[in-house]
Structures are given as structure tokens and as C-alpha cells.
Design brief:
Elements lengths: L4 E2 L6 H16 L7 E4 L1 H8 L3 H11 L6 E7 L3 E2 L2 E2 L6 E5 L5 H11 L3 H10 L7 E7 L5 E6 L9 E8 L3 H4 L6 E6 L4 E5 L5 E5 L5 E5 L12 H18 L3 E8 L2 E9 L33 H8 L3 E5 L4 E3 L7 E7 L2 E5 L2 E6 L4 E2 L3 H4 L6 E4 L3 E7 H10 L1 H28 L2
Antiparallel strand pairs: 1-2, 2-7, 3-6, 3-7, 4-5, 8-9, 8-14, 9-10, 10-11, 12-13, 14-15, 16-23, 17-22, 18-21, 18-23, 19-20, 19-22
């Protein structure tokens, strides 16, 4: 099967990504994994672009899952030992219903095309279009959660390393608390217990997303795992190594007194989390592109063809849209809200609805020349070079028009510089 499948049916890593395939293997081996589905990269592309049939298929598949939901990336190559994308691809937690999953999937898709992810890909020498699989699972309401390494990731010692906190494990994987730390021998003997400082727990919010819930004073430095928890985790480590091999990075949670496996991968650094957002379907109109100099000379049908490739992206107040010096692969057109542009930390201008930035990234994919920050809620239409370049390569009329436009801009810039030089005594 190549479409959306139950997690247990995710077997092709080139379609579903390592995370989904790993969870599928865990289910087939009888390990305790929350119910979920796996979306292949092509299906995620279709959902991100707003294809009605793909969105309907997603909603039908998700309706079988108990809510709320967690939506996580499972990009191809994401969880290999040599290429951790930790902190690059987001997780959207506490998605309330099937109708809200489309927006969460689109945000995961965008995270794989963000400046930070593109920068990381270039450093690894894999500057190609990412294939973004997605895992959708029922979200647990855990009492405690965290991470476990089946081998010490720093010293290489043959021992289990466990970090734990109250509530959802994202407090641990995102480094937002000082977790309790435990060391176990391979046989399960406790070698060390070290209490952390867990002032809050991340919990699911009643209206979607998550909240930081203050922890009772007597629990802030109290160990959140008892001996029976540690025995269960030791057994899980043994099971995971039996299924996957040695040297595993495991995310786990205790909910309702039961231990669940959330993720098992080759030893990597921790993954980041992002809040839930709910983007809408792109407008698909080329009218707004007529105000973009790069596209201004294109015929209306050609601008419409480009506009149909846009995907909406929503940024939260204060969020960095582009960062100066980061590698780039996307162009944005502001639909609503405002953003501030800075260069070397100095204010340059405020962007408003109808303004745009990053169009040269569609051609050269080089570093950003400025930082753009959302002032409040900011809604943009965006297009990546992965979608733009094939369209240009298939259409010589568009390519020639863009080339003439760029030549004109180079000539005008050159004439301006010559004028400045001639005026200098």
C-alpha cells in the first residue's frame, strides 16, 4: 500500500520515513505504541497544497482515532544515526479533531522547508526536496514521560540513561525543565538517581494546543519515577534493542499506569516542539503577484500557475520568519498581519499585507540577507524552490520572461552604480 495506512502497515521507509516505519515495526513486534496512522510524502504534499481529495482521505482516516491527536514529522532520512533533524521538524500536540488535522499536517510540511531545516540539509550535503511523511497518533495524557538511551550517548558506557518529568515528555525533549536523571545497568540495577527541578508540566489544553501547568511545590524536586517504573523501562529498553538493535534513543510515557513507546530511533539529540496552528487553503490567485517585480512581466496565466503552487503558512507573534544568514528556499507574500525587517539587528522597515520577501531564494537558494519577525499573528502565502523550479524548467516562456526581468534589474543597478561613480570627484 502506498497511501495513508495504519501505523502497523507502514513498512516502506522511502515513503513513510523512519519514524513511521519504526513505530510500525514496534507494533508488529507487540510493543505498546498508541494507535495512529502514517501518511506518505506524496500524500502530505497533496494535503499541504490543499487538494480536496487528499484532505478528505486524511479526515476519513483520522476519524477512527481517539482524540485529541499528536501530529509528528516522519521525513525520509530524518531519524538516521548520521542525520538527526532534531529541532528542525515540528510536532503539533493536542489537535482536537479530525477537522483540525489538515492544518497541523501543513505546519509539519512547512517545518521541513523552513530556513533552519534547509540550512541543516545543506550542511549535510542533501540539498534536495524533502520527502515529508507524517505520523498522526492519539495523544496520551501521561503522568510522567521522557527519554531513555539504551547506551550512554556521551561516554558510550553499556548502561541505560533515563530522563523524566511530569506531564508530556516535550518538557524533556525540548530542554524546558531540568529532568530527573537515572542510570541503570543493562541488567536493570539502579546505579544513580538524581532529582531534577521540574517547576511545571506540559499538559493538553481544553481548547487545543498545550499549556504549562505549575507543579505542586512538593513535586518540583521529587523523583517522578519509582522502582516499578524503572523496571518497566528497563524491560522496554531490552525489547527495543531486540527489535531494532543496540544504541537506541527512546521516547516513552506512563499514562493510566501503563508504559507506552512513543518513538525509537538511532541515538540522536532531542527534538523540538512547536505550538498548534490552523492555516487555511491557499487562495490560488495571481493578482497579488503582479506587484512582485520578479513576476510583474509574466502573463496572467503564468502568474496564476505560480500562485496555484502557494501554500499558506501562519506565524505566531514574535516568531522569526526568516533569519539573516540562514540558507533559504522559500518566498513569502503577506496575506494579513505585519512583520519587522532588521539587518545586523538594525530596523529597516515594516512589512504589510501585499508586501513580499525572499523571491531571489526561489532562484539561487542562498543565505537570507535580513531577519523578518512577525509583529503579531502573521499569515503568508509561501512557495518553495522545490515547487517553483520545476514549473520554470517546464515552461520556457516563464523562464525567458524571468531572465529578461533579472537582466533589466542588473542593468538598472549597474547604471545606478556608474552614475554614483561619475558623480564622485
Amino acid at each position: 500500500m502506498n497511501g495513508i495506512v495504519p501505523l502497523v502497515g507502514a513498512e516502506a521507509e522511502e515513503l513513510y520515513g523512519a519514524k513511521a516505519v519504526g513505530l510500525g515495526a514496534a507494533l508488529r513486534a507487540g510493543l505498546p505504541v498508541p494507535p495512529g496512522i502514517a501518511l506518505p510524502g506524496p500524500e502530505v504534499d497533496a494535503i499541504a497544497s490543499g487538494e480536496v481529495a487528499a484532505t478528505a482521505t486524511l479526515r476519513d482516516a483520522v476519524r477512527e482515532l481517539p482524540t485529541p491527536l499528536a501530529v509528528r514529522s516522519s521525513a525520509v532520512g530524518e531519524d538516521s544515526a548520521g542525520a538527526s533533524f532534531a529541532g528542525q521538524h515540528i510536532t503539533v500536540l493536542n489537535v482536537p479533531s479530525a477537522d483540525d488535522v489538515e492544518g497541523a499536517v501543513r505546519e509539519v510540511w512547512w517545518s521541513a522547508n523552513s530556513d533552519s531545516a534547509i540550512t541543516y540539509r545543506k550542511r549535510l550535503g542533501v540539498f534536495v526536496r524533502p520527502s515529508v511523511g507524517v505520523v498522526v497518533q492519539s495523544l496520551l495524557q501521561p503522568e510522567t514521560a521522557g527519554v531513555m538511551f539504551t547506551r550512554n550517548p556521551i561516554t558510550g558506557a553499556d548502561e541505560r540513561m533515563i530522563e523524566a518529568s511530569w506531564g508530556l515528555g516535550e518538557a524533556v525533549v525540548a530542554g524546558r525543565v531540568i529532568p530527573d536523571a537515572f542510570r541503570l545497568s543493562r541488567s536493570g540495577d539502579v546505579l544513580e538517581r538524581r532529582p531534577g527541578f521540574k517547576r511545571f508540566a506540559i499538559r493538553a489544553s481544553a481548547d487545543g494546543g498545550t499549556v504549562d501547568e505549575e507543579v505542586a511545590a512538593d513535586l518540583v524536586e521529587a523523583l517522578c519515577l519509582r522502582d516499578e517504573h524503572l523496571r518497566a523501562l528497563s524491560a522496554l529498553a531490552e525489547d527495543c534493542e531486540r527489535v531494532y538493535g543496540e544504541g537506541r534513543d527512546i521516547e516513552w510515557a506512563f499514562a493510566g499506569g501503563q508504559l507506552y513507546l512513543l518513538q525509537c530511533r538511532a541515538v540522536t539529540v532531542s527534538a523540538g516542539v512547536a505550538p498548534q496552528r490552523t492555516p487555511a487553503v491557499p487562495t490560488g490567485s495571481g493578482d497579488s503577484l503582479s506587484r512582485v517585480p520578479l513576476f510583474s512581466n509574466l502573463a496572467r496565466p503564468d502568474r496564476d500557475a505560480i500562485a496555484r503552487l502557494f501554500t499558506q503558512r501562519v506565524f505566531t507573534p514574535g516568531e522569526t520568519v526568516t533569519k539573516e544568514g540562514s540558507e533559504a528556499a522559500a518566498f513569502y507574500l503577506i496575506e494579513s498581519g505585519t512583520a519587522t525587517v532588521t539587518v545586523h539587528g538594525a530596523f529597516r522597515r515594516t512589512l504589510h499585507p501585499g508586501d513580499h520577501f525572499g523571491e531571489i531564494a526561489l532562484i539561487d537558494g542562498q543565505a537570507r540577507s535580513a531577519t523578518v519577525t512577525a509583529d503579531g499573528a502573521l499569515v503568508c502565502q509561501g512557495i518553495t524552490l522545490w515547487d517553483f523550479q520545476p514549473l520554470v524548467q517546464r515552461n520556457p516562456t516563464i523562464a525567458w520572461t524571468l531572465l529578461r526581468t533579472l537582466a533589466r534589474e542588473v542593468r538598472e543597478a549597474s547604471d545606478t552604480q556608474i552614475g554614483k561613480t561619475a558623480a564622485t570627484p
